[in-house]
Write a structure and sequence with these properties.
single chain; 370 residues; mainly alpha; abc type-2 transporter like fold; 15 helices
Amino acid sequence: MRLDNVFQLGIKELRGLVRDPMLLVLIVYSFTLAVYAGAKALPETLNHAAIAIVDEDRSPVSTRIGMAFTPPYFSEPRLISQYEMDRRMDAGLDTFALDVPPDFQRDLLARKSPTIQLNIDATRISQAFNGGGYIEQIVSAEIAEFLARTRGVQTVPIELALRARFNPELKKSWFGAIDHVITSITMLSIILTGAALIREREHGTIEHLLVMPVTPLEIMVSKVWSMGAVVLIASALSIAVVVKGWLAVTIDGSLALFLVGAALQLFATTSMGIFLATVAGSMPQFGLLLIMILLPLQTLSGSMTPRESMPQFVQDIMLAAPNTHFVMLAQAILFRGAGLEAVWPQLLALAVIGSVFFVIALRRFRAFLA
């Protein structure tokens, strides 16, 4: 393998990427707006949920319940009539509608166990699950304090001193931002390398390479380093500008060590992209294969849910995927400030998995050229 051939072929790939505006837009979007949107719009977060209250009792306890719903979990409660409740919910204006019946306070003081009706727009699935529990806790606490005639603090025999490490303010946006950077690294590395090979086959330039004094190894390595370099530079800029600057996420770990792990991840995923491109006959087929590969990688790697919550056999199978080790490495470095002594097993695993994927892809690529 001649390094000058690899370098010149890699420059050719970069020039081809520059002439493809859609891929350039995808790269910019994936590492900027997608990261910001993923950080700010986590679906499991209850944020300014729309709530309306039908107060048919007009009593001190019903007023107290209405005043208990405050930002940032709920928006300012809107007092409406019973006639408006169904109409507003059908129009999608309210996610929750709380109906306090007449004589609620009188029945409450008489120990008659009155009922409050809570209507939930279940089409807003994430807010419906979390919001119902929040509202039940708030209403129960206000009623209990009203009956006790005091807002006294309940004393417990043991006081817990809570200290949140690595994310003291418990901001879910921090996790969302890093997760989307990890997702973009995997997704774009596979897309760019696969699209580069399929583009050459569709344009007929793959035949030009076959008559040149270059080997399949040189062609494959050129695609790996060129597309990997693009994704690596884009991810570094995304963490420095978008994550740390725009979103103000505190990163305690070494960015250089993270980029080393990202380079090993790219070594594996770019090889995977070439393998998929040799299997697919066209870009639509490549897109379908990409969906089949990316969904399990992202869902079962531990980036969306902890690996400990999955069945043991799934955890064991996913140890063969590079994403699993990359997610563990990225979270340890960027969240907990881990050093090389803590993440070297993940680095070693990525190197081994990447080498296996590269050999398999090279064999398939040689058969494809033949």
